[in-house]
Design brief:
The chain is an alpha/beta fold. The chain has one domain (8-259): TIM Barrel. It is 36% helix and 19% strand. The protein has 8 helices and 11 strands. The chain has an 8-stranded parallel barrel with strand order 1-2-3-4-7-9-10-11, surrounded by 5 helices. A 3-stranded antiparallel β-sheet has the order 6-5-8, with no helix packed on it. Helix 7 (220-224) links the parallel strand 10 and strand 11. It is globular, with a radius of gyration of 17 Å. It starts with 7 loop residues before the first strand and ends with a helix.
């Protein structure tokens, strides 16, 4: 098992459109350089982990990404792993848990993020069903050391199988076998509801709990009073513009605020 630091502050590496995306305009070496540069800024600021994510590929495939996306994520994650001392995670949007696992195993990464691990959610990609059973068997075969960080009532979606967030957290942790659970706001950049964060904390006290969106230097203290950490992206970019590189000063300001909680 990985001994995760507390607080666990994870920076987001939002990748440009990858090969195969209709908006891809960069060769892989430029995409890798972009990711490594962002990761180094995060590490220098004090972040302990990073998630590599194909954010630029929108509109996303619902449950299966093409093989070239998996390969691209593996190449980028391996480069970030080699260039930094941080823990590295992979998220294959929108919900390809097996692709994320495959990329993580190939890259020697430490964890994956899965948006819908259990249940059914209505999303902008249509209905997405949980991936827990297939993922659990695959992880046993090829990646038993890769941990699963799973969203509960993931953003950009409505959970229709279990509307109670506390019960959904229990199902994610104990039936889906997630190692960590993530609670986000309604969309990227919007803050998680602190009452929902508290309910999930009470429901799954033995799991890592992370706030997954909208955490800022002004709010990180309140979040860390409840959760074990946060996944941080938008507030590290000038003007919250996801396509821009991570700003070192903003990243350092966030870490200072977290340390002062």
């Amino acid at each position: 098992m990985i001994d995760w630091p507390r607080p666990l502050l994870i920076g987001m590496c939002h990748l440009p459109p990858l090969p195969g995306s209709s908006r891809c305009r960069q060769p892989m070496d430029a995409i890798v350089a972009h990711a490594v540069a962002d990761a180094r800024v995060l590490e220098s600021a004090g972040f302990r982990a990073v998630i590599v994510e194909n954010f630029g590929d929108a509109p996303f495939a619902g449950e299966r990404v093409p093989p070239w996306t998996t390969a691209s994520l593996a190449v980028v994650a391996a480069a970030v792993k080699s260039a930094t001392g941080m823990r590295v995670g992979v998220n294959a949007l929108r919900n390809d848990a097996l692709a994320g696992l495959g990329a993580a195993v190939a890259a020697g990464a430490d964890f994956i993020r899965v948006n819908v691990l259990v249940g059914v959610s209505a999303t902008d990609q249509g209905f997405i069903e949980g991936a827990a059973a297939e993922l659990d068997r695959a992880r046993t075969l090829v990646g038993p050391d890769v941990q699963v960080f799973a969203d509960v009532h993931v953003k950009h979606a409505v959970c229709i199988s279990q509307p109670d967030i506390a019960l959904a957290a229990e199902e994610t942790a104990y039936r889906g076998r997630a190692d960590a659970v993530i609670v986000s706001g309604a969309t990227t950049g919007r803050a998680a509801d602190l009452d929902e964060l508290r309910r999930v904390r009470q429901a799954v006290p033995d799991r890592l709990l992370l706030a997954g969106s909208g955490v800022t230097p002004a709010t990180v203290g309140a979040v860390l009073a409840i959760a074990d950490g946060a996944v941080v992206g938008s507030c590290l970019k000038p003007g919250g513009e996801i396509a821009l590189p991570i700003d070192g000063a903003l990243a350092r300001d966030f870490i200072k605020a977290a340390e002062a909680k």
